[in-house]
Amino acid sequence: MTAPPGTPADSPLTMDEALALALYRDLSTPKLAAGDLAFDFELAPLGGGEPVRLSSFAGVRPVALVFGSYT
To answer: Which helix (H) or strand (E) holds 52?
Structure first.
């Protein structure tokens, strides 16, 4: 099996081996159910300024989180 692009040649694990580890399976398992509150987190605005905390929007307005790659 060939390593995924960007994997160092001396990497001790293949992607399949890493994903088979319980630690990584646990990280990919959702911990929330429908209706649960999202985990709070804070992000710095791209243009600079004060960090924004997710919990500051609770009960104020809906928040949509979009995760993806645009490359």
So the answer is: strand 52-53
Residue 26's φ and ψ, nearest 5 degrees, are: -65, -40
The single residue listed with the structure tokens 């001396």 is: 10
Q: Which residue is listed with tokens 């990280």?
A: 27
Please, are residues 45 and 52 in contact by the beta-carbon 8 Å criterion? yes
Are 38 and 30 contacting, i.e. CB atoms less than 8 angstroms apart? no
What's the predicted TM-score (pTM) here? 0.45
Structure confidence by residue, pLDDT tens digits, 12-42: 877 788 778 887 777 766 778 888 888 888 9
